[in-house]
Amino acid sequence: MRPAALAFLALAMSTDAFAAAIGKGAGTARPGLSNALRTGLLFGTIEGITPIIGWGLGMAAAQMIAQWDHWIAFVLLTGLGAHMIYAGMTQNDDPSPSSRQPLGMLMLTALATSIDALVIGISLAFFDVNITLAALAIGVTTMVMVTTGMMLGNVVGQRAEIAGGVLLMALGSAILYEHLYAPMSLQAFL
């Protein structure tokens, strides 16, 4: 895999986590760099592990997962997006003093945004790709994007949580549309 293709892939895999992080940062009173880094590390680790899991599944499970990945991503991202919109609309102007997000919600969000990386890992099993390098690039890029998103979301304000929710719902819908009506070949980028 060419370095430009790997960089594009890593960036593409981290954009949904970035959108979620903006919403999380907006809903957190002063997340602080250490909290943003912890969140980024959690998302980056999960996003880096899922392509390896997908790669390990390889050809045997490719058809089964490819048939359902878009529905799983759509339901999870739309549900999380709706929750973020609800939370953004029901919060008062003074966010709670808590600076930490519940670990369970962060992990669920990280898993929901990494389903596409799992499927990419399955796709990468069909090509001559160093999966360790690809997973590391995806994980590190996601960590940086999520950390940045957490800090940016807090600066933008808590209403950005509504925008983050809308972005997640749009992302889930785009994934569903892409898989149902406009399938894209990974071969073009390799």
TrEMBL record:
The main location class comes to membrane
| Molecular functions (GO terms) | manganese ion transmembrane transporter activity
Tell me what topology the record assigns in the membrane: Multi-pass membrane protein
Q: One GO cellular component from the entry?
A: plasma membrane
Q: Where in the cell is it found?
A: Cell membrane
Database matches in Pfam families: Mntp (PF02659)
- Give the residue spans that cross the bilayer: 35-56, 68-86, 106-127, 134-156, 162-182
For this protein, the record's InterPro entries field holds: Mntp/YtaF, Put_MntP
Coiled-coil residues are none
**Keywords attached to this entry:** Cell membrane, Ion transport, Manganese, Membrane, Signal, Transmembrane, Transmembrane helix, Transport
Leader peptide range in chain numbering: 1-19
* Similarity comment: Belongs to the MntP (TC 9.B.29) family.
- Its function? Probably functions as a manganese efflux pump.
In terms of HAMAP family, this protein maps to: MntP_pump
| Name of protein | Putative manganese efflux pump MntP
